[in-house]
Amino acid sequence: MLEYQSTVLSPTYQERAIKLDEFNYINVYILSKEDVVVSKIIRLAEKDIEDLDQIVPNCDKELITK
After folding, report:
1. Where are the domains of the chain?
2. What is the per-residue pLDDT across 50-64, written as a single tens digit (0 to 9) for each?
3. Which uninterrupted H or E stretch holds 38?
4. Cβ–Cβ contacts within 10 Å for residue 62, how many?
5. What is the DSSP letter of 5?
6. Residue 15 clears pLDDT 90, i.e. is over it
7. Cα–Cα distance between 35 and 41 in angstroms, integer?
8. pLDDT, tens digit, for every residue of 23-46?
9. What per-residue confidence (pLDDT) applies to 4?
10. pTM beyond cutoff 0.85
11. Confidence check: pLDDT of 2 > 80
């Protein structure tokens, strides 16, 4: 089953997006850890809190607070 939820992203998220080089014919980007953290803080579901415990220690905290 496909589950879909959306959240607000920073207007500058594309500047921090990380390109995955494994794909030859399409460009695939993922959000930076910091943008994932901000989106999880906005949603703050139970699973998000668990994820934040794992992600935040490896993030640029200054970038998150901007």
Report:
1. 24-64
2. 999 999 999 999 988
3. helix 33-43
4. 8
5. -
6. yes
7. 10
8. 999 999 999 999 999 999 988 889
9. 74
10. no
11. no
Q: Which residues, 6+ apart, have CB-to-CB distance to 33 below 8 Å?
A: 55, 58, 59
| Element of type H or E holding 20 | strand 18-20
Q: Cα separation of 46 and 17, whole Å?
A: 25
4 phi, psi to nearest 5 deg: -130, 130
Q: What is the CB neighbour count within 10 angstroms for residue 16?
A: 15
What's the CA gap between 42 and 8, in Å, rounded? 8
Here the tokens at position 63 are: 């970038």
**Amino acid at site 34:** E
User: Which residues, including other chains, have CB under 8 Å from residue 18's CB and lie 6 or more apart?
Assistant: 29, 30, 31, 32
